[in-house]
Amino acid sequence: MKNLAVIFLTLLMLLTSGVQNRVYAMKHTDEVMANIRHHLSTINEPADSLPPLLNLFDLEQAVGLRKNYDSLAVVIYDVALRAGNSTVALEMLRHQANSVNTKGLNLKKLLKETERFEGHADKKATETFILMRLNRYYTYLTDADSTQTQFQEQLREITVAPPKDIYDNIVKLHAVCMHLSKEKSRELLPKYFGRLETLVDSVHDRTHALASTVYLHSALAYSDADVTDRALESDRKLLELMDTMDMQYEAAGRPFREYGNAKYMAYRRMLRNWRDLSSSELENLYAKANEAAANAPQAQIADRLNPLVDIYYNMGKKNYSEAKPLLEKALARADNNSRRTELLRDMMIVAKATDDTETYMNIADEYVQHLHTILNNRLQERYKELQVAYDINQFKSEITSLKNEKKNTQIGFQRTIIWISLSALLVLLILLFFLIRQYSHSRKLAQNLAQINKALVKESESLRKSKAEIIEMRDEAQKANQFKTTFMRNLGREISVPLNSIVEHSRLIVDCIDSTNKPYLTQYAEMIQFNGDYITTVVNDVLHLAQLDSDSLSLSRSLVDIRKIAELVIDTVTPEIKEDVKLVFDPDSVNPIIYTDPRRVQQILMNVVSNAAKFTASGTVTLQCNFVNQGKMVAISVTDTGVGIDPKYKDVIFDRFVKIDDNTPGAGLGLPLARMLARLLGGDLTFDSNYRKGARFVLTIPNTTK
After folding, report:
1. Does residue 128 contact residue 171 with C-beta atoms inside 8 Å?
2. How many CB atoms lie within 10 A of CB 696?
3. Does domain 558-702 have CATH number 3.40.225.10?
4. How far is CA 607 from CA 421, 591, 601, 678, in A?
5. What's the first-to-final CA gap in the chain, in angstroms?
6. What is the pLDDT of residues 445-503, one digit of tens each?
7. Is pTM, for the whole model, over 0.90?
């Protein structure tokens, strides 16, 4: 609890008291960081962890623990994702991209990561920032020939056809600026960096990542190319932007965010141009550089090892005796090779001012050699600038050619438009003439149509009356059909009872007579039974049709073995058919078990098999079962070797009371009833008109198990 209190009191003090207390916190960094880490160990939620993690990150960055804060950036990115804080996650991606250890492949991976933040306000700026880092990486660390080729392509693109998307334009223009920076093109740098700054200033980037990158890169480029006024202006803009960002971070509850080292480097670059600074500017920049170094451990170390700030200040103030040992120390450092020429020049000034002839002579030869090298480099740079200028002129010439071509095309297009307009006018005049004639003709037609309309009204009235009569007749027909169905159902029930009684009594009479008359009467009893069974079948068919018409026939589904039903039908029908006819079940058939109504399947097969046996004088009636329609349906075929059916009757045979041969017994209800039952089960009963050796009917049923 004590540590937590220290954290909150420290934060409160920083937020309310400003810079003085921030400096105090920096001097007690270890204690504050330890308290923050302890506080983090007590937090479980990702969202609650972000504020202390960011403060720890800012502290480690302020004191220069690069390895620590680079690793912490990866951790914060993961926590921000889990907390749903895309703003912080994108900030950590930008930090990882800005790390000195980040190479091309890592930058591409970071660029891929930005895709997950589609729609976020900072996504485009972060993506563009990473691409700008890639530009600098490719310019300074890749093959010179490939870089030159890529530069020419980019230069042509931004000259001939700049990208319409402003962020793409920024990336392309930045790539060109990086190449010009590498070549130290004094004449071209201001032009292209000026365009780039204008573009960046026109976009709404609340992260300030793009502007700070452009100002930093332009300051470095102008300094290397000795464009003093531009270098000072870029660094001033960069310092103003860092002050703005400083205030924004402090307002957001991140008081430890510190740009001391970056400010120190900017002031050092500005002091490098001490020859162009007034005395007051020199004093002001020197004071600010020391102030920044006091608050930035990295800057303190850099200043102690490489005292460039003091060298520039003393040279500007003409304190040559104080500048001499500092210059000797700086010249001994290998990391000053890029600025060695200017240091040699300053040492010669000091040696001459202090009458140190020995030192002057010792460094004169090296300075002359450096001047020769600089001269050669400047000649090469000038040549490259001329080459770039030539390329730009070529591109401009290409643009001019394209514009002229476009202008000629537009002129040709305008001429074409004129001819088309004249042709259209002529066509319109012709159309107007025909329209006038058509109008006259239409008036005559309108008069005729009025007369026809009167006739149509009368006809409409007649049709309306006829329609009413037809509706009335339809209703009467429906009532009659309902009466018919009811009558058939009642009649069937009334007939079945006495008919069964007649059959049973005929059997009883035969059983009760003596043995002498029994053979004679048995024949008549069997005739009565046969005809009774026939009438019963007809009555049952009529009753089933009546139930189907009135939708009152119910189904009782269960798992059914189709092979067993087929064999049961064969056993039932066999005693009633001719001796020369055989009923068989194809042994190669499949044996499905499906979910359906077994009684209705048996009824359908009984009707179809009986019908097949009736029209077969001799031969076979074969039942076969297969899967069809990719196994979704079960097909049971009934094939006979009888007289067959003419294909022209393939639809008629399923109509009620239709008999192709009037001499054949039957009421013409078996097949219609079987088809209606098959469709009630979700399948169908069809006639195979392609079979010519008799007749074949196919029953299909859904192959389901529930």
Report:
1. yes
2. 21
3. no
4. 80, 22, 10, 12
5. 67
6. 888 888 888 888 888 787 888 788 888 787 776 676 666 666 666 666 666 667 667 76
7. no
